[in-house]
Amino acid sequence: MKELLNAVYKRKSMRKYSGRLTEQELAQVKDYLQQLKPLCPEIKVEFEVVPCKDTNCKFNGEYCLIVYSQEGNLWLANIGYMLEQWDLYLATLNIGVCWYGMGKVDENEKNGLKYGIMLCFGKCGEEDFRKDVGEFNRKDTDDFWAIGDSDNDGLLFGKVGQIVRLAPSACNSQPWQVEQDGNSLRVYRVKGNTPVLSGILFKHWNKVDIGIFLTFLEVALESEGYTFTRELHSDTDSKKRVLTATYSLNVV
């Protein structure tokens, strides 16, 4: 996924759009949906692209992407992981995206799959995207990344950590923690902090958020020349701090 690195620095949650997609661009973004890597290949996912006017989306995007998924362990993280790849890819085409967490559909199930989330998107100009990392409002890396004593710990923290800190999340809650021990990373989903959403909604979106974070983490690792083995863990609702994934790293 390292080809998405440049988009990490420019992506922005768009609420205003300045043009219309060509038929070729629309076909291109639809085709890319079939190229997305799943976090959990066993979970069935379906996508539907509809005009924004046919949804309850309040932003003036041209289209909405509606996602339906089979439920199961990490199903929401799988949605976040896959759709963040799409979000970043669209930024490379100067197509803006907004994750519309309050989106509603007429039917919460389709083909036996549950409604997951809605994203609106539309054409933007290069000038509409971020130009500098100083435009991001994010935690410092040391607020969520705990490192050990080895030299490699500091190297990962300095390079990979500065990329992953830019990951988006619902209400900018940034519900993640990383513990590093040499070439091992443990990624946790934690309770986010925002007064905007109810506890039930917040928990739902934070499970999507941790998948988004894993996409950013893997883009960063690949860009810095690391290969890895990833182990996923069971996500439960009973804990405020849940181990989501463990990464064992190798340097190419």
Low-confidence stretches: none
Number of strands: 10
Report the sheet with the most strands, covering strand number, pairing sense and barrel closure.
5 strands, antiparallel
Count of helical regions: 5
Helical content, roughly?
25-40%
Going by helix content, strand content and strand pairing, the class is alpha+beta
SSE series: HHEEHEEEEHEEHEE
- Give the termini separation: 15 Å
State mean pLDDT (0 to 100 scale).
Answer: 89
Overall shape = globular
Beta-strand share of residues? 25-35%
Q: Over the alpha carbons, how many angstroms does the gyration radius reach? A: 18 Å
Fold and architecture overview:
Helices cover 29% and strands 26% of the residues. It has 252 residues and is of the alpha+beta class. The strands form two sheets. Strands 1, 2, 3, 4 and 5 form a five-stranded antiparallel sheet that branches. Strands 6-7-8-10-9 form a five-stranded mixed sheet, with helices on one face. β9 and β10 form a beta hairpin. The longest helix has 25 residues, at 199-223. The relative contact order is 0.17. The model has no long low-confidence stretch (mean pLDDT 89).
